[in-house]
Amino acid sequence: MTGDIRRVVLAYSGGLDTSVILRWLQETYRCEVVTFTADLGQGEELEPVRGKAEMAGVRPEHVFIEDLRDTFVRDFVFPMFRANTQYEGEYLLGTSIARPLIAKRLVEIAAETGADAVSHGATGKGNDQVRFELGCYALNPDIRIIAPWREWDLNSRTKLMQYARDRQIPIATDREDEPPYSTDANLLHISYEGRVLEDPWVEPDEAMFTRTVAPERAPDTPTYVEIGFERGDPVSVDGQSLGPAALLTRLNQIAGANGVGRLDMVENRFVGMKNRGVYETPGGTLLLTAHRAMESLTLDRDAGHLRDGLMPRYAELIYNGFWFAPEREALQALIDQTQEEVTGTVRLKLYKGSLIVVGRKSPSSLYSAEHVTFEEDSVYDQRDAEGFIKLNALRLRLRARARRP
Asked: Is 182 a catalytic residue?
């Protein structure tokens, strides 16, 4: 089966795992490897990845390094946030939402380069193998996928390191010591798993965090920030219009400096096991709170309740890797329709890890001070409430009478 693979597109980070995978593909499948590295705002200098790939025998024209930050935020993060999406009530899906974009580019690059297959470095225990492969199959049902962690016998860090040494694959000096936390980073978040975090009772080491200060070390005075929305998407910060990636970057800075955006949770993986993950999602936390506040002013009650009722299913689809599935697309159409009037500005107050909405305004506001005032008004007849209550109570009263002894 290995002989019919001539060329493979590998999702490549330049780290230990994918560097070993690159060589393993060349040796096992006797094939040419094309590398694809996506800049999703992970905060790393990616140009050195080019040199690593070329040193490993990848042709220069087959090293793809692409800045996809605006695409990622505009076409994936923002649509997800229109639904106030949280998996299991907490997780803002920072890893999950990046996978469909990577899968999309893997398939497209395979078509551009005439590759027979794509490959990834996800393990056989996690969710990412499912997300990558469901995305690839949805876009090209005939694509071949090579998942080395499900095929090879390099099933420990020790074996990976030895394989790299035997083949003189460069290893970062920090990998020679005790392994760091397993992390995944992009413009929306950074996640930490493994090592001592595998014990859900152990508090994370403060030195681990990179995007947020400890709340107790945040400034002693509150920070205020205003986020402007148009049709459900954020478009400005403190009155300054910003592109998608620049806007999220700015919110990350503001929230991180105030200790906002940390999450420690045990979640249910799609493959069946529970997993403890620690996340930093500073800008996303601001967006979620601000978007809900904007909707509170502009979104019809029952339209909002309907959308909120669908959100857990929508979140589950993204978490499980079904971004390109017809049911996710159908839900997205409904979600997007609810956002037509979600336009205006929200003011937030940040202080030592806390986040409070302190103001909201909109040209399409459904809030009527004239109707809700406790003072005298001429628009609402309070006597109407009696009939409203009696009609709604009718079935309750009939049931109560029927149950009398």
From this structure: yes
Q: Give the CATH number of domain 2-68+96-179.
A: 3.40.50.620
84 torsion bin: left (phi>0), alpha (psi -120 to 50), beta (else): left
- Under the banding of pLDDT at 50, 70 and 90, the label for residue 99 is very high
pLDDT value for 56: 94
Catalytic-labelled residue, pool 13, 17, 69, 250: 17
Q: What value does the mean pLDDT take over residues 336-363?
A: 98
> Burial of 11 by CB count in 10 Å (0-12 exposed, 13-18 middle, 19+ buried)?
buried
Which residue among 23, 99, 250, 307 is the active-site one?
99
Residues 6+ apart with CB under 8 A from 16: 160, 161, 164, 171, 172, 175
**pLDDT of 192 above 70:** yes
pLDDT digits (tens, 9 = 90+) for 22-55: 999 999 999 999 999 999 999 888 989 999 999 9
119 catalytic? Reply is: no
Active-site residue identified among 144, 182, 296, 347: 182
- 250 is annotated as an active-site residue: no
Whether residue 176 is predicted with pLDDT greater than 90 in this model: the reply is no
128, 191, 307, 362: the catalytic one is 128
Q: Say whether 307 is catalytic.
A: no
The whole model's pTM is what? 0.94
Q: What is the DSSP string of 26-52?
A: HHHH--EEEEEEEESS-S---HHHHHH
Q: What CATH architecture applies to the domain 184-361?
A: Alpha-Beta Complex (3.90)
